[in-house]
């Protein structure tokens, strides 16, 4: 797999952070866990439940040597979301994400979560209460 980085761009690779000082093309010759800077979400951008779950999965990917706390947070967040959402699109996405994380496919889980951000935004809009069960 080839990855091209622009000058100053970061790559998170197997728990390490690399920064390119100039445009560079890297070829990964074996299996590696990586995340491009463009897909990294800062904590202040984790403003919805699905974005918070994305942030947790991102922590699992970026720090693979200490997954215990992130896995606990993931399980707790997933359970709360499955109990709260009643929107079929979101629930299907959550089921898919849970299976991907269980299979250690964190990058694909992040991609799946990005795919349902728009639905989450629509459901959480101030004028929309459809899709969320009332929590008591």
Task: Describe the fold and architecture.
The model has no long low-confidence stretch (mean pLDDT 87). The protein folds into 2 domains: 2-38; 41-123. It is 47% helix and 14% strand. It contains 4 helices and 5 strands, in the order E-E-E-E-E-H-H-H-H. The strands form 2 sheets. A 3-stranded antiparallel β-sheet has the order 3-2-5, covered by helices on one side. A two-stranded antiparallel ribbon has the order 1-4. By secondary structure, it is α+β, with helices and mostly antiparallel strands.
Specify Rg, calculated over alpha carbons: 16 Å
Helices and strands, in order, run as EEEEEHHHH
Coarse structural class = alpha+beta
Helix content: 40-55%
User: Can you list the strand order of the major beta sheet?
Assistant: 3-2-5
End-to-end gap: 48 Å
Largest sheet: 3 strands, antiparallel
- Average pLDDT confidence is 87
The gross shape turns out to be globular
Number of discrete helical segments: 4
What portion of residues belong to β-strands?
5-15%
Which residues sit in consecutive blocks of at least 5 with pLDDT less than 50?
A: none
Number of domains: 2
Number of strands: 5
